[in-house]
Structures are given as structure tokens and as C-alpha cells.
Amino acid sequence: MLKDLCMLNGASGREFEVREYILNAVKGYCECETDPLGSVIAFKKGKKRPKNKVMLCAHMDEVAFIVTYITDDGYLKFRPVGGIDPLAVLGRAVRINGRIGVIGSKAVHQLSEEEANKAPDFKELFIDIGASDREQALKYVSLGDNAYFESEYINFGDGFIKSKALDDRIGCMLLTELIKGELEYDTYFCFNVQEEVGLRGAACTSFGVQSDVSVILESTTAADISGVSGAERCCVLGGGPVVSFMDSRTVYDRRLYNIALETAKENGIKVQTKTVIAGGNDAGAVQTSGKGSRVLAVSLPCRYIHSAASVVKESDIEETRKLLKVLLPKLYD
Prior knowledge:
By secondary structure, the chain is of the alpha+beta class. It is built from nine helices and 16 strands. A seven-stranded mixed β-sheet has the order 1-2-12-3-13-15-14, sandwiched between helices. A six-stranded antiparallel β-sheet has the order 5-4-9-6-7-8, with no helix packed on it. The protein is globular. A hairpin with a 2-residue loop joins strand 6 and strand 7.
């Protein structure tokens, strides 16, 4: 399921393929509705009605690119949709309307000294689709079209996975698995749109559900690479799911944070927290929507996030499954 989800394209506001896949996957297991913004709100009846209304969230969109202009000689000017480092895109292949393109810039020997000593800006980059001029390019591409990283889903090394869109198709997979399993209590599940451009989908779904407790399933930046040590490593692959106490958007509920860590310890499940306060996720919108909600984030550590080659470890996914199984029943009372 994860491979299928990652290979689908779904930029912010264009999550159609991902939404259709999820709706088909959960059909018959729950009640579903799609809100006006495009998010999916699913309700699964459990064996009991809980004291607390619990909602689990993941986002369907991925970082991508959008075409803003086509030059006279057929090159596509573009901007990122979501947070992407320009250094992660130079020379990368992308796919746009079924065609391959290559992200390029001025050749290195043509750079001025100032240009050579700084990171490129997106305004200096272009996508080359092999068109001879603007007229030919317009046969295949229109302004506002999205381009996506061209990336294979590959298992490699000691249980590692490399792909685009692991943020947050892992969360979508885990939510789908929970919906298709047996639940002790009634539960809401939200597959949100437009997280990468400002948590927009979550602001709407959380207002509609009005949950007491919300769990956000995400991917988060791991920096366990050569040359990075101590707290700056943030979190590490193989260390289990990440339970955050705070990020740039959210101060997480302390009681839920403690319950998650204690539950993991009691059950021999690997778990870690982030040692850097940075980033954010749908919890930032969920926490303050409507009457407010107590929030908890459970994230998969991910190297090279928001790139064509994000990397996660299979064991962390399995540890997250184990944690959710024993943690969720504690959130309904």
C-alpha cells in the first residue's frame, strides 16, 4: 500500500489521485464524506461509544512544483508548492503531464563569482522538457500545471525505503490500516489536503469534527547523517516513532505526551522525541480549531524529507503500528 500511495501524484490542492485511492481502499469499512476543500472525513463505528471524541489525521498532499511561465525557447519557469530546498532539485528529473523534464540552471562555468558562492534561487532555475520553443512547449504544458519528482520506490540496505512523498503517505497508510481493522471505540479519521502550504485542510476538518483528542500521524525530519551530532540530529532512523513535545506551530498536550512515552516503555516499544524545536504539522491547525483539541503527534523519522529521495526505515513503521495498537485505547476515556 505504501508503494502505491507514494507513486501517486498529489500536490497541495491537487490530491485527486490520492483521495480516490483512499476512498476505494476504505469503502465498506466506514462512513466517508469529502468536504468542499477536498479532505476526506471518515467515521468508523467501534464496539463502544467513547467518552472522548477521538480523531486521527494524516495529510494527502506532497511537495511539488507549479509552472508559472514558459520562455520563448521552451523552458518552464516554476515555483515550489511547499517547502523545498533549491539545492535538492538541481539536475533532478521531474514528471509533468506524463512527460519527463529536467530541472536545470546556468552551467557552472558561466556562473559569476557571486553566483557560484551562494545557493541558487528558484527564480534562476527552469524545467527542460525538450521543447524547441514556447509554441511546442504549450502543446504539452499549461501555466498552473504541476510537476513532480520522478522517483522510484526502492527497498535498500538494512531495511530502508527510499521514495518521494513518504511525507505523508505513511500516515495515510497507517490510517487506512486502522480503518480496515477492528476498533474498540467509535473513531474519526481525517485525510487532509493542503498541509504543505499552511495546514488548510486540517483547519476545516477539525472544525467539522470538533474532537476532544487528536492524533496526527506524520513524517518528520531526521538529521542522523555524517557531520551532525548531539541535539542537532533531531531524531534518528531506527529509533522508533517520534513523539514531539513542541514544534514551530504547536505545544503538544503534556498528558498525552507522557501517556505515549509511558505506554511505549510498558510494552517494550522503541520511541523517541525530537531534540530540536522546528517544523510543524496539522496539529497546529487542529489544536486551535473550534473549541480546541488536545493534540499528540506520532511521526516517522525521515531523512532528506521534501525531496525526491526521502528515506525511512521499515522497523520504525512497524514500531509505530505497535504503539498505535496499545496507545489508542487509552485516549478515549
